[in-house]
Amino acid sequence: MVRQNGGVRRFLVAATAALSLALVGCSAAAPEAGPARTGSADPSAFLNEHDLGGMDGEQIIDHLDRLPVAERPTDLVASVHADQLLLADAEQEVVVRLDDDRFYLSIAPYVDQTHECFFHSLTTCRGELANQEIGVRIVDDATGDLVVDEQVTTFDNGFVGFWLPRDVRGTIEVTLDGLTGQRSFSSSDDDATCLTTLRLDES
């Protein structure tokens, strides 16, 4: 569900502030403000203007995170939070609600270089290992259940994203060409949607 109301600007300011604390790579200042549009803002029109028309929140995230870097929009801020996707350009801000039962976690494993990140920015975040085939295992620590066990290719931005169950505390293990790394995670309302601290090295 897409909505826009008086609380949107407060959410956007908080998101922008959080993004501004990140290092270059995931930091994303809001586009420079231009003249305000007249009349009521139309979320559907906003999405259409950015070639996102007809998509729900999950589809927008999956689409933007998988775009080749050269094709990513430069006039759009898209910040993933646990329960909502914040979208903004120079004139409008829109909140797209996300499924209460799922949590999007975008992971950028690294070998040599990384950056700080908390809320994943779909249009600016860049990781070191782009277009690399990696093995990913995600385990629910409380139950021992294997949530993910896949060979995947990182996106052009160096990340790979997973829709995980809510309110899980677990462990992520990534392997690449004899290198491996582990990091804990959790998927509650206050948790990060961007994981950039999983370093790969020889075990």
SSE layout:
Elements: E1 2-3, H1 8-20, H2 43-49, H3 57-66, E2 77-80, E3 84-88, E4 93-97, E5 102-107, E6 120-121, E7 133-140, E8 146-153, E9 160-165, E10 169-176, E11 179-186, E12 194-195, E13 201-202
Question: Would you write up a description of this structure?
Answer:
Helices cover 15% and strands 33% of the residues. The protein has 203 residues and is α+β, with helices and mostly antiparallel strands. It is globular. The N and C termini lie far apart (45 Å). Mean pLDDT is 84; it is low at 2-25 and 28-40.
SSE class: alpha+beta
Shape category: globular
Strand arrangement, largest sheet?
1-4-3-2-6
How would you characterize the largest beta sheet? 5 strands, antiparallel
Radius of gyration: 17 Å
Query: What percent of residues are in strands?
Result: 25-35%
Low-confidence stretches: 2-25, 28-40
The total of beta strands comes to 13
State the end-to-end CA separation: 45 Å
Helical region count? 3
> Helix amount, in percent?
10-25%
Q: Which features does this protein show?
A:
203 residues, alpha+beta, five-stranded antiparallel beta sheet, 3 helices, disordered N terminus
